Amino acid sequence: MLKKADVLSGKTVLVTGAAKRLGRAVALAAAENGADVAITYRESAREARLVVGELARRGVEALAVRCDVTDEKSVREMVKEVARELGGVDVLVNNAANYETAEFEKLTVSQWDAIFASNARGPFLVSREALPYLRKRKGRIVNMGSLGGLRPWASHAHYCSSKAAVHMLTRVMAKALAPEVAVNAVAPGMIDLGDPAATAFMKRMARQTPMRRNGTAAEIAAAVMFFATAPKFITGQVLAVDGGLGL
Ligand SMILES: NC(=O)c1ccc[n+]([C@@H]2O[C@H](COP(=O)([O-])OP(=O)(O)OC[C@H]3O[C@@H](n4cnc5c(N)ncnc54)[C@H](OP(=O)(O)O)[C@@H]3O)[C@@H](O)[C@H]2O)c1
Question: Using CA atoms, how far apart are residues 188 and 217, in angstroms rounded to an integer?
Answer without folding.
Answer: 10
